[in-house]
Queue: 2 jobs
Job 1
Amino acid sequence: MRFSRNLLASMALILPAIALPASSGQNKLQIAADAVPGESSLFVNYAGKKSPIASKWMKTISATSSGPAGPDDLLFQNLLSAEWIIYSLYQEAVDTFSPSDFTKLGLRNDTYQRIVEIRDNEAGHIRIFQDQISTNSIKPGPCQYEFGFNTSASAFLALQVYIEVSSMVFLTGLSLQAEANISKSALMAIGQVETRHNTWALLDVYNTDPFSGPSDTIYPYANQILDMTNAFIVPGSCPAENPIYPTPRQGLPRIDIIGNGTTARPGSDIKLLFEPLDNQPKFESGKDYYAVFYHGLNTVSVPYNLKHNSVKIPKQFDSEVGIIMVSIADERDAPTEESVLAGPLIILEQPGVLTLKEPYVD
Ligand SMILES: *[C@@H]1O[C@H](CO)[C@@H](O)[C@H](O)[C@H]1NC(C)=O
Ligand SMILES: *[C@@H]1O[C@H](CO)[C@@H](O)[C@H](O)[C@H]1NC(C)=O
Ligand SMILES: *[C@@H]1O[C@H](CO)[C@@H](O)[C@H](O)[C@H]1NC(C)=O
Ligand SMILES: *[C@@H]1O[C@H](CO)[C@@H](O)[C@H](O)[C@H]1NC(C)=O
């Protein structure tokens, strides 16, 4: 296929315009409660440390009418609770760091500015999801979070990739739950923004291949991915009115790889560990269990060896790049949510970035 000269000319006109850095005047924007994503630079390139979200929206918002919940209220309540975690991660980074924390690591001098912009986008997601929940339903508010990066800029950056990759996969999965067509499209539109954030990190921070092959990975049970992010919530810190996150919640054990020399590439053996210790999968002796691997649109089940806690990542996956997910199930290919006993674990295959393990936070 060839691009027309006119198309290239019009792109050339647009690109310099969007490459302009945020002006310093964007620090002083007023944090307006009626700012709307798509119509306000607060959610684009506002450069202040202070949150772009007005205090009116920084809390649980009760239903203001009664009647049946909107068809996708539950989905957007779950997503809003997840977004509070993601937004808060970035806001904490914006509060904690300054540009020199990143240039000291040898990174580009616009790294902090990008993190601020991503914070702005995530604040916009908060407002979008709040508005997608009907007035008949409660809009969950923020809890307290413990991300564990402390003051380490590199630990934050690793967590940032983990969070963006997780959000890409749970948004893809949540579209399976959406009732309204417009909700499906909205989830896709938001997922693409998370992908842009991740692409930026893979290129500018990790200097690796930013692509993921022909398709990102579909994992069918999005609430299980959301549930994993409960690890970042300080226990008991959520507003009492918030619904259980996520609803419904299975509370499955998390999976980690016991990493000693494994590259977690297709064809390699990985040894699994379930966390926390007081929430272990209930295996019955004599029964068959499977490690179910997801990559792109493919699902491959491998017998799970209970004695060694080990499995081989399917050799047939193409993965030089992209996401592999794995859960442990008591049925081949985990045909139902209930058949999953632990996980999922997300592995990001990218040259130079070996495994993206869930950070220990408890
Ligand atoms: C940032 O880095 C670029 C490219 O190395 C350089 O041209 C620019 O002057 C730097 N900006 C600042 C504010 O240091
Ligand atoms: C957090 O960082 C401070 C300062 O670098 C350090 O003294 C402290 O031990 C760190 N705490 C943890 C839990 O890593
Ligand atoms: C979604 O779109 C399809 C195709 O236009 C239509 O048949 C269906 O009724 C729509 N669903 C809803 C819930 O509006
Ligand atoms: C990791 O592997 C190396 C080399 O194979 C071995 O010497 C070491 O004991 C292993 N460490 C653990 C904690 O298993």
Job 2
Amino acid sequence: MRVPFLGLDRQTAALRADLDAAWARVAGSGRYVFGEELERFEAELAAYCGVRHAVGVASGTDAITTALAALGIGPGDEVITAANTCVPTVVGIEATGATAVLADADPRRFTLDPARLHEALSPRTKAIVPVHLYGQCSDMAEIGRIATELGIAVIEDCAQAHGARLGERRAGSLGAAAAFSFYPTKNLGALGDAGAVTTDDPEVAERARLLRNYGDGGRFHHVLRGRNSRLDTLQAALLRAKLPFLEAWNERRREIAARYTRALAGSGVEPPVEASGGRHVYHLYVVRTERRDAFRAALAQCGIETDVHYPLAVHEQPAYAQLAPGGRELHSSERLAASVVSLPLHPQLTDEEVGYVAEGARAAAERH
Ligand SMILES: *Cc1c(COP(=O)(O)O)cnc(C)c1O
């Protein structure tokens, strides 16, 4: 059997009639930028996240930039994020003109370690961008407590956490603002690029709306220096067609994750840990093993595709070497980069494929 890492073609095929109807509605409307489809998607996304406002933008990276800029963060400011995130988080921060400062990850939860935050703080720190990596919320209670004490903002990177929860609250409602990506592979994905900012603060929402559209406050009266980062009406319509399925898809992800975790128990390969009181939505199912190459090779031999998210911590990337902090360590992030492996997990996997991956992973782990 061959189990590919992704199955977006299957998801599109299953929803083809709904997606075709969305496309036809937009095509026939004559309205291809802004308009009712976008407004409805924004309202539906805000309701889903449990916040008052959502503002569609062109990508997840732009959502991070827009959220930070809407909160007044820019040149001269420092923004802390996790050293084990994917690079777009840092791209989004740097696009505001602010400086990204990396802090270390919690080696079990894989998210920003609040106990290590103080090392990265300086008098110029204006915001923290915790990344809800792989589908699990960061320790927002502790991060929020520290941020409140210092009077700085917390902006969630929710690109991998659509529908994740801490207690009863959803990702996207846990900070001053949040950034979502709808890149096709995400738990909720467009058929192209798309993103959104969510917030409860009407002023932040209003500034985000201005910033995504050249700061135009109405008919060529520019009140902010913004840029062009709009969410296409067509992508908004396609996302509206998909949003009602997100909960069921996330439940299926959790079911598959539970099956893999049972199979790997005591095998020597460490399954991911779900923090108590939270709902992990397994954007990625990431295990840890010191013998990554052998484990991946054994899985490849039985046709199971794996991947590594991410093979280098941000400061280990050639383009970001200058973000390596002098005088402090980011060892947990570096060790994670050297030992993580992602198994295929998406809602369109069949039970047979899930069983095959679970047994294949168990066998590969025991062969170590
Ligand atoms: C995908 C992703 C982004 C960037 O989203 P784009 O839509 O590709 O710009 C940012 N942060 C994280 C954690 C991501 O996974």
